[in-house]
């Protein structure tokens, strides 16, 4: 059973491809952070190695597909076959006087793929399957190394991995988390693998920014676009499956912007919501402060960026959503506010700004995000953003 929630359009497509044995050798999983890209990738890794899939295609229990399991299951466990002497005494179609019976038809296998319960599926879910590997920024590095990209050495390692025969499962699977962060050398090296994929292999590229990938890489992958879950559906899911009260479910569904993983995390751990409240308080303080305080804030965010790029980017997206809300207030569309719980401060700040000022600052925030992605100096870039604050 596919575990990904809210992506029925993708599940239908993949389920049909698995049933017809027509999966592509490479997929590009596109969607915002916490939308479920990794969950879908794990589902796909389970699907290509699931024992139910092998039973469905062969009509009999599989040997596992890999060298280790096929050796273990051959010879010693031939329980269903008679001896050679029995075969001579009773050739096919003949019996010892009793009525001849036709062979029983093989029933159609209706097991779901991935089943989530076989040994292969469980090992993939636990992250210990020898034929499934995940790489990302800093994978395999020492803890004190602060990487900003996926390096060519990592890509060469997965090339060697993919060229090996599957050890235990039916397919080798590589998941590249944050594929847009590959440096140029790594992307070009990966392109060679995409052009000549090894047999029995599946490559899954996860990205929040499809345009940041080389066009040649995008053209050689089948793209799957993960969509945000509708607020009402997500709210119901949180209330029914996670026992969230209606007010909490509504708030979390709204703040998660349709990202199921982020919503569940917020329910299970209150720290992200508490951090959001603290960041919003600081944001409002900065908007009312002078240049000295704004420059101190730019230094704080730059330091956060050097320690955790994702956390700093999320903070800038918080700013972007705040100024988007200011624009909605200016245009009389408050029913679409992201920060609906802060409508009063938004109205007060919007009353002091023109629509042109709000639009211009939204553009500034977007340019800042682009500059940071291009490895511009974080402190100078953020100080420029603070200088332009109306």
Overall description:
The protein is of the alpha/beta class. The protein is built from 18 helices and five strands. Strand 3 (172-177), helix 8 and strand 4 form a beta-alpha-beta unit. Helix 17 (355-373) packs antiparallel against helix 18 (378-387). It starts with 7 loop residues before the first helix and ends with a helix.
The fraction of residues assigned to DSSP E strands is 5-15%
H-E order: HEHHHHHEHEHEHEHHHHHHHHH
Globally, the shape reads globular
Low-confidence stretches: 60-65, 67-109
Rg over CA atoms: 27 Å
Secondary structural class: alpha/beta
Helix percentage: 40-55%
Largest sheet: 5 strands, parallel
Average predicted confidence as pLDDT: 85
Beta strands, count: 5
Q: List the strand order in the largest sheet.
A: 2-3-4-1-5
Distance separating the two termini: 52 Å
Tally of DSSP helical segments: 18
Oligomer: single chain
């Amino acid at each position: 059973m596919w575990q990904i929630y809210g992506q029925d359009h993708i599940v239908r497509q993949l389920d049909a491809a698995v049933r017809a044995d027509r999966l592509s050798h490479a997929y590009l999983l596109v969607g915002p952070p916490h939308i479920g890209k990794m969950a879908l990738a794990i589902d796909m890794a389970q699907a290509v190695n699931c024992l139910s899939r092998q039973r469905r295609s062969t009509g009999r229990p599989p040997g596992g597909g890999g060298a280790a399991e096929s050796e273990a299951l051959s010879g010693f466990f031939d329980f269903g076959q008679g001896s050679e002497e029995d075969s001579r005494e009773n050739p096919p179609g003949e019996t010892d006087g009793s009525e001849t019976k036709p062979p029983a038809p093989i029933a159609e296998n209706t097991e779901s793929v991935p089943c989530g319960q076989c040994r292969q599926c469980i090992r993939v879910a636990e992250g210990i399957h020898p034929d499934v590997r995940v790489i990302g920024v800093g994978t395999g590095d020492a803890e004190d190394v602060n990487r900003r990209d996926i390096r060519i050495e990592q890509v060469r390692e997965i090339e060697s991995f993919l060229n090996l025969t599957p050890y235990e499962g039916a397919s080798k699977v590589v998941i590249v988390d944050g594929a847009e962060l590959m440096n140029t050398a790594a992307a070009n090296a990966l392109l060679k693998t995409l052009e000549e994929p090894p047999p029995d292999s599946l490559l899954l590229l996860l990205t929040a920014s499809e345009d940041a990938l080389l066009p040649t890489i995008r053209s050689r992958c089948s793209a799957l676009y993960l969509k945000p879950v509708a607020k009402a559906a997500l709210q119901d899911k949180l209330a029914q499956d996670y026992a969230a009260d209606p007010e909490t479910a509504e708030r979390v569904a709204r703040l998660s912007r349709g990202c199921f993983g982020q919503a569940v995390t917020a329910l299970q751990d209150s720290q992200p919501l508490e951090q959001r409240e603290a960041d919003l308080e600081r944001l409002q303080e900065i908007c009312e402060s002078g240049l000295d305080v704004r420059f101190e804030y730019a230094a704080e965010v730059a330091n956060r960026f050097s320690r955790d790029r994702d956390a700093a980017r999320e903070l800038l997206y918080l700013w972007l959503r705040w100024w988007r809300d200011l624009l909605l207030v200016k245009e009389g569309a408050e029913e679409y506010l992201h920060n609906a719980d802060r409508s009063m401060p938004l109205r007060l700040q919007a009353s002091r700004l023109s629509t042109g000022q709000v639009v211009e600052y939204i553009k500034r925030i977007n340019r800042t995000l682009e500059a940071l992605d291009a490895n511009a100096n974080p402190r100078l870039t953020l100080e420029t953003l603070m200088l332009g604050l109306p």
